[in-house]
């Protein structure tokens, strides 16, 4: 059987299983199950934890075998194995190996103007992204990526303030009164800091002003190299002679003498009315490795955060990426339903959205047919797992705990006091307190109208048991992960 058919069979088997056991149980126990191989009638399936492996083996082997063999008739036995958390799943991902970085394909191959870029794919992804493109400026700054402009930066509620501030900086003219310097932009990974900083650098350069964009790493490297070559004074003068200094990833700035130099440069530029723009993955007050005076100087201008991308913005980013991908692969079609699905499923950041479109493109080529929501789901399944913890519902906690302990949700809500029901009920109450913002009285109400003191007693009891019973502690950890995934 070809890999494409095997993938399809596996996806269908998962769908059957979901229909068979229901969404809550499927999500709890099977969402992380992956097909590794089929050899001599044995389908090898992997899971990430021993607990899941044991649970599936002791409760679901028959049902699992029946759905798998119904879709993949060559399978007569199953083997559940443990996979390492770092290894990439073998199927279906192996089929698109080497193409997971979206920029290495669509975004690299063509810009909206059709321009082609060359890039060294052997360099680590992080550096490749920051240093992609070829327009190194004459001042020894980090190279700018020509694709990262204001034109390609999509604006939504989460990044509007940062975008407006950056554009103001970019549009200012020498001699204008500075509104804020430094402009400090912070955000979690992949939310567009580098994009915005490089867009600013492009726009400033186009206006004829002198701009330098440096990663903190490059700043450190440049300073140390100039010290070695005894050209430190020239290095400082060069930096202080520019109109706009842009430093990315300032959280990586290390070393006392480097920080002192950095602080001098900041002071010299800001005091002289020049613009400084900084980005980091946290606010200045949390830059623990930086000296206090550097932190306070960084906090002295305008500090804005890019917040997680909302669904509408994610959808627009996916649409834009698909449009670029279509320049490379004209037959590549993604239906609005699939775009909406990707935007809903990938909640983490722009980089993961890039990765998802890249996956879809590779899978579409492989399968030679347009994606359905189901095939898209299978193609990007492992990317979805890296998303932020979701809001947990008390009802989901009750369902999961009940299914784990082989009792019904009605038992948990009932007034039954047998040990087989009391313990799951207390665990579910404990998890409700730990994973939701609900108050004790609210939790009590949601557990069959119990008093808040009953909930408090349950929470304390499970906390105490956890310190004595390692197995219970491990089980609770797993529940938490399953519920938040
Ligand atoms: N608003 C946006 N519009 C268009 N593309 C975006 C937007 N936000 C993020 N992206 C894209 O998401 C990817 C990651 O963005 P970027 O590299 O700028 O993130 P970052 O915040 O600098 O991440 P890191 O902290 O890892 O350096 C890039 O391909 C970028 O173009």
How would you describe what is shown here?
The protein has helices at residues 3-21, 23-30, 50-59, 61-71, 106-109, 125-131, 160-171, 193-206, 216-228, 232-240, 256-271, 292-298, 311-328, 336-345, 350-367, 373-379, 381-384, 394-404, 409-413, 419-435, 440-446, 452-468, 470-484; strands at residues 34-39, 42-47, 77-82, 183-186, 211-215, 244-248, 275-280, 302-305. Helix 1 (3-21) packs across helix 4 (61-71), helix 9 packs antiparallel against helix 10 (232-240) and helix 22 (452-468) packs across helix 23. The two termini are 33 Å apart. 36% of the residues are buried. The strands form two sheets. The protein has a five-stranded parallel sheet with strand order 5-6-7-4-8, with helices on both faces. A three-stranded mixed sheet has the order 1-2-3, with helices on one face. It has three domains: 3-91, DnaA, N-terminal domain (GMP Synthetase, Chain A, domain 3, 2-Layer Sandwich), CATH 3.30.300.180; 123-151 and 159-305, P-loop containing nucleotide triphosphate hydrolases (Rossmann fold); 394-484, DnaA protein, C-terminal DNA-binding domain (Chromosomal Replication Initiator Protein Dnaa, Chain: A, Orthogonal Bundle), CATH 1.10.1750.10. With 485 residues, it is α/β, with parallel strands linked by helices. The radius of gyration is 27 Å and the shape is globular. A hairpin with a 2-residue loop joins strand 1 (34-39) and strand 2 (42-47). The longest helix has 19 residues, at 3-21. The site of adenosine-5'-triphosphate has 18 residues, from helix 8 and helix 15.
